[in-house]
Design a protein that fits this description.
This protein is of the alpha/beta class. The chain folds into 2 domains: 202 residues, Formyl transferase, N-terminal domain (Rossmann fold), CATH 3.40.50; 106 residues, Methionyl-tRNA Fmet Formyltransferase, Chain A, domain 2 (Roll).
Length: 318
Amino acid sequence: MLVDKENLRIIFMGTPNFAVDILDGLIQQKYSVIGVITAPDRPAGRGQKVRESAVKTYAKKHQLNVLQPKNLKDPDFIRQLKSLNPNLQVVVAFRMLPKIVWQLPKYGTFNLHASLLPQYRGAAPINWAIINGEKETGVSTFFIDENIDTGAIILQHSIAISNDDTAGTLHDKLMIEGRLLTLKTIEKICNNTVKIVEQPEFELKTAHKLHKENCKINWHNSGEQIRNHVRGLNPYPGAWATLKDGDDIYNIKIYEVQFEEATHRNFTGSLIAEKSSIKIAVSDGYIVLNQFQFPGKKKMDVKSFLNGFSFQSNSKMI
């Protein structure tokens, strides 16, 4: 059955900046977005000031109807959702939906995911693709089912990961591609030309949620693995390491490094500070620090940092 664009009643669900650009694509194309569902306002930052999601900020600016349920199974929320009478739901960077929600619209509920599914299902696909040294990734749309990121694929588009991409630059590239793929998916739904493909099951790489422990640098990894780890966590949440400088210990964020392949006899983690450079010895060479952040300080380049700091002779990363 063909669907006129004017007859679509879309509910959009999302929270971060990545989702904002997709929502903007719908608005710019004059789709009827009858409701926006996003995360509740939460305290954030040092002052624990209550902040609204990026999607909510955009939705308010465009006078869209915003719902912020704490519990997606709450009967009052379900009644509100049904009263809006949606016939399509678009989900981008949101949370897992209960069946009563995703099965509601006549034309289904589809999700945009920032990977080439079935690879990198999970919360942080952009980060893990870079951390694992992938040369290609992409975006996928799929109809939601009972599990996380496992539904039948509608469309996919791949892009190359450059050697200098960070999580930040790749995020922006995928956001642009995701906007286009979302619009193409809706067009196919309207034209009744969707041909779904079930996700194959083979050796899968997952996009685990990022936390403090898996963001820490392992200095026993190869230099290229460490470089990928750093750029895969730049700018957020940031790779980190523990520096022992004499009797002082610092947990520092590291945002940009280079890898120099070399043969040497230095212990792994040894810090070599020169007039305008800081190097860390690893098994197959040196990690050269370019940009990092000490606790309570701003991000700094190495030259600026060395103007006001000198290391002990036995300094090392632990």
